[in-house]
Amino acid sequence: MSELSCDIGIGGMTCASCVARVERAIAKLPGVESVSVNLATESARVTWAASQAAEDEQTQQARLRRAVRDAGYEPLAAEHLEQAPAGAWAGFSPVALGLLLSAPLVLPMLGDALGQHWMLPALWQFLLATPVQFVLGARFYKAGWHALLAGSGNMDLLVALGTSAGWALSVWLWLTAPAGAMVHLYFEGSAVVITLVLLGKWLEARAKRQTTDAIRALHALRPARARVITLDGELEIPIEELLLGDRLVVLPGERFAADGVVLEGQTQVDEAMLTGEPLPVHKVVDSRVTGGSINGEGRVVIRVSATGTATVLANIIRLVEDAQAAKAPIQRLVDQVSAVFVPVVLVLALATLLVWWFTGHSLEVSLIHCVAVLVIACPCALGLATPAAIMAGTGVAAKHGILIKDAQALEVAHKVDTVAFDKTGTLTVGQPRLLSLLATAGSDSAAETQTLLTLTASLQSGSEHPLAHAVVQAAKAQGVAFAAPDSAKAVPGFGSEGVVQGRTLLLGSLRWMTELALPEGAWLAQASALQAQGATVSVLAERTAQGVVPRAVLAFGDEPKPGVQAALAKLRARGLRLVMISGDNAGAAQAMAARLGLRSDEVHADVMPGDKAALVKRLQHNPHGSPHVVAFVGDGINDAPALAAADVGLAMANLNADGQRGGTDVAMQAAGITLMRGDVALVAGALDISARTVAKIRQNLFWAFVYNAAGIPLAAMGYLSPVVAGAAMALSSVSVMTNALLLKRWKP
Question: Which is nearest to 422 in space by CA: 230, 646, 259, 227?
Fold first, then answer.
């Protein structure tokens, strides 16, 4: 049964406990299959069962928004990430007011260090601290109250309890002090803690805006309007009104408003947003262009071939958003810890209060140490550690042409020890040429050869296979006229069969011809000789009353992609085992392997498309220890099972001779990572960004746990004041976000 998914923005979340609470609230809705809440993007990805399709989307959204609001948070439009980022100082006014009101409370502490007495009267301290506590800090009371109503806790509850205790203690000491007595109050502690937390959240929000730059940049690639050719001339319309088949005029320097095919003109197109390739691509009539790419120096007219969510750019945005919405496996551990974290902290804070009080210290001292525990324990950094790193990693990878579809692929890729490659189109150019066509009847006359080429080109004219393209291109190059076959069908893994000019023809591999029991003859020696030279061999046969009879032997040749040998050497230098998988015969596969710098034992030839997945499973098997972690790199429809079977599937988005991606779309759906250009060097880049992102996740989690693991005991033992605890807590969130943003400097 298929599923439906939607996104919703969520405002007001502050820590990992908030994430857990929102997920529980949404999961209770009828028909919800799964929910993943991301603190860094302040959004949720909700998957509904197909049975909910009967319920209209508006009702679903209403239920979803109500659940978020009932949990104590603010539902936002899912498009809030697309909006242009606010100014650098947006949202700073509450922090500025807090700093202004807290400064006079902190200055006396500086005066004490200089031997000066600058202490403000108690009334002034009260008047300065109270607005900070109850006006600027109102958000903590509101969110903390909702958490209590939901039977859970969060960062806001800890801050509200801690600062309220400090403020209340100060008021009590002030009101109960003898007339004229100088009493040390703790108004500055409560005010400064709230101000520091607000400052930390503001810095965190600024950093979050930077982690979502990748999504915003992708959305910004879509122009708002397009110039359409109508009966009345050129007319500018919003791109939302574009229809398939519309003719658009694109001037030099403009972005293409939709995917399309060039009808008039020629130009250079900057497709860096799509492939990460900095060099412009030459486009002529019948070339395909992608929406969002930039037109060069020529005016062109294109016919729209895809609009809206069907465009390549929309698919890229969807893949990046999916990766950033998904949870990495390591996040599950964080969620389990967060579920019990706040209740445990409350118990520890109460224990701190009681231990200090029962060991003879005043209630005043005991309460201050309790407040310090409450403040430093806030699990903000814990909730941001993983999603912040994933967002930064997937964003910078997309910028360089590496689309990571799910967080699990990102987390697993750095463990890969074996990389298996499909040969044709992945390691090779994938556009083989027809090298020779030899008639099996022994006649090598031009007329006979042309007749056989005509029959073969007709049979192959409707096929998407690279060898079929080679035959058709050879026929066109020689000026051979051919028509569509009367009928044709693909025989998966073997070739094709059809009726041309009343003759039943078969074109396929030697293996197929052997299974069909073709009579042996000179054609077999011809085929063997061509294979020994490294050619890919196909046989044209005809089904007659006497059986299947060979008519011609065709030899095809392919070329390695530029730079592929260096890319494979780089992967080998990382200690990886390399494997090439090919449906070609052993001779052709070994000949290509030698050109690529691969050893003979790294080649698997004569592998049927349906057997690639089984071979991947065999590669994963390790009789001497834990299973091998296998990445499979492929580019076609027949690679989809192997891409899905591998621990990490990398789909290579090659363009065929017509500028189309052919079967790459199917491969992209099966793979966890898509390489947006046919460059094998990007494989090393994908593994590298995975390793760096996972390293950032581990660093972030380490520091998040260290802040709490070290800070809570220090606060409980009286070594940290509430002010220092507040500063440390704010610093932990900012340091985690900053560390994640270092990934933005990565280059493959």
Answer: 646
Is residue 381 scored above 70 in pLDDT?
yes
- Pairwise CA distance, residues 66 & 59, whole Å: 11
The stretch 43-47 carries a mean pLDDT of 87
Q: Which two tokens stand for residue 675?
A: 């390489």
pLDDT digits (tens, 9 = 90+) for 694-737: 999 889 888 888 887 888 899 899 888 888 887 787 788 788 88
The bridge status of strand 225-230 relative to strand 247-250 is: antiparallel
Which residues are CB-neighbours of 101 under 8 A, at least 6 positions away?
128, 129, 131, 132, 191, 195
Instruction: Give the span between the Cα atoms of 368 and 193, in whole angstroms.
Output: 13
Residue 413 to residue 633: CA distance in whole angstroms? 12
List residues with catalytic annotation: 422
Q: Write out pLDDT tens, residues 571-629.
A: 999 999 999 998 777 888 888 888 899 988 889 988 877 788 889 999 998 888 789 99
Secondary structure of 474-520 as H, E, C letters: HHHHCCCCCCCCCEEEEECCCEEEEEECCEEEEEECHHHHHHCCCCC
Alpha helices in 50-137 (DSSP H): 57-70, 93-113, 122-131
Q: How many CB atoms lie within 10 A of CB 490?
A: 16
Kindly give, in sequence order, each residue whose CB lies less than 8 Å from that of residue 304, ignoring residues fewer than 6 positions away.
Answer: 242, 243, 244, 245, 246, 247, 248, 258, 259, 260
Per-residue model confidence (pLDDT) at position 53: 54
Burial letters for 401-415: b for 16+ Cβ neighbours within 10 Å, e otherwise? bbbbbbbbbbbbbbe
What sign does the CA torsion over 344, 348, 351, 357 have?
negative
Band of the pLDDT at 97, cuts 50, 70, 90?
Answer: very high
| End-to-end Cα separation, the chain, in angstroms | 39
